[in-house]
Amino acid sequence: xxxxxxxxxxxxxxxxxxxxxxxxxxxxxxxxxxxxxxxxxxxxxxxxxxxxxxxxxxxxxxxxxxxxxxxxxxxxxxxxxxxxxxxxxxxxxxxxxxxxxxxxxxxxxxxxxxxxxxxxxxxxxxxxxxxxxxxxxxxxxxxxxxxxxxxxxxxxxxxxxxxxxxxxxxxxxxxxxxxxxxxxxxxxxxxxxxxxxxxxxxxxxxxxxxxxxxxxxxxxxxxxxxxxxxxxxxxxxxxxxxxxx
Length: 245
Hints:
- Helices cover 16% and strands 29% of the residues.
- The protein is of the alpha+beta class.
- It has a domain at 35-92 and 122-215 and 225-240.
């Protein structure tokens, strides 16, 4: 009887553990950027972003750059950016580039996010503590760790190098800190609420949300920057190389 009782306890504990593992939403699959519609799906559009408030010493140069970009666009020109220079967008821009989807591969210990644009990849290590910033070399995607809070996957990212363009092209320091909350707001709609904090460049944290719609059975395609036709001139404008025939 004691053996049967002990076996029953082990079985109950195992079932409870399996239920706990299965309780997390499955975010796996391909997801298309979703910016809204006029039909029933409109309720899944992302909410408005909070204002981007830079400290005065950064706000002036930032506004000058934005004005230059707008003037260039009116002339049909493009100022140099990550795409034109054939470098990765990095975080957080890679999470939403034009119409290109992202793919999520979810396992108990790691969530891998792949952006189709430029085939960018970031890895979120589940259940691990964040690294000491002094022990991690800054890069395009930083170091991301995650944990579950109920049905929300919360991701903490540090270590984005300052040369990587920030949210809306904002300047940032090595102290940039990104927090994300991934939520399935419906079976086929995913929200990524992003909070960006940088005590050096921002007056206060900025928050915005990216929305995605599931792409059933979509297969990601290779997108590699292999461009030898564009260059950036001495004014920072993207030009096309003209080849002799």
